[in-house]
Amino acid sequence: MTETECPDVEFAALHAELRGVTRSLLARIGVHERVEREVAARQGWLGLEVPEEFDGAGATFAETAVVAQEWGRAVAAGSQASAALAVGVCLLLASGPTRDGLLRAIAAGQSTVAVAFASDADACHPAGLPFHLHGSGAHRMLSGSAEFVLDAPAAEQLLLFAADEGGVPVVVSVPTHAVGIARTTQPVLDRSRAFGRVVAEELTVPANSIHRFTDDPGTAVRRIRDRAAVLIACDSIGLGEAMLAATVSYAGTRSQFGRPIGSFQAVKHACADMLVQLTVTRHLVDAAVRGVVANGPESEVAVAMAKSHACATAVDIAGKAMQLHGGYGYTWESGIHRYLERATLNRALYGSPRDYRRRIADRYSRS
After folding, report:
1. pLDDT by residue (tens digit) across 308-320?
2. What b-and-e string marks burial along 275-311, b requiring 16 or more CB atoms within 10 Å of the CB?
3. Which is it for strands 131-134 and 157-163: parallel, antiparallel or unpaired?
4. What is the pTM of this model?
5. CA distance 258 to 242
């Protein structure tokens, strides 16, 4: 299958090289294996969007999306996605010692920072934020909880989305060892990633831990939600491409009735359908990545289309790949179950396909 290049044609060669290097390194580490934080930092994967003044690469979300797709292709475990989320949040906040220190720590692989925001795809307003501030002055307290926070069990720092006393969205940064913070590991179908529930009970919050957005707070919250959704869509298209490649390879070598099974019309049509689904998905994901980079007025629609289609497609392709591998596809040794598990979780993360399709329908019904 010929892969369409990344959204920005000007940097197509750079993206192709980044894709190739990332794929090669992940293959050397091993499919399904955990990529240690320090290794990811040395390769520059964690600090792609961190400004150069904070020891990052100063790249954009387009480059992060390339790496995210390759992590999905390898069903790799590690902190790449949580780092991409945390960096995205920090870049929307006003500069300060705490924020700048977090950016440096993420880029250097010195700290895993988990981002806790509402898991509902439509929760982009203050009432839907998982945490709330109350009190005044030096006695401001934080309470609330968030479910399925990526990398929460292993994180050293948390970025908690909260509504202040006036209902304005803010971000509160706290170390995970702070008194008043509790984390509980939440088991999920996909064993390549870790999620946890974060609870804050009357947590005392110093003034320098409360960060304001430099842009409109409501817009900033939406941008983070869109970033999370597109990261999952990128992961999903990587999963789908890996499953199609594995299936085509298997169909060319597995023989039945004296012929490779790839010569049978039913198998040909199934693989062709998978390719068509992935081609459509890639165009949608590329448009969503461009939308996140540019933050254009139509980015919300592009994100919703990409997330809903990419995640549903990945589940369909992984399931079909398992079937086309025959009995072997259902064995532990084939490894296909890991792709299906990850794709199934991706479909539910940060909103289901139905949630995003409803968002698109509601938007156009109002216009």
Report:
1. 999 999 999 999 9
2. bebbeebbebbbbbbbbbbeeeeebbbbbbbbbbbbb
3. parallel
4. 0.92
5. 27
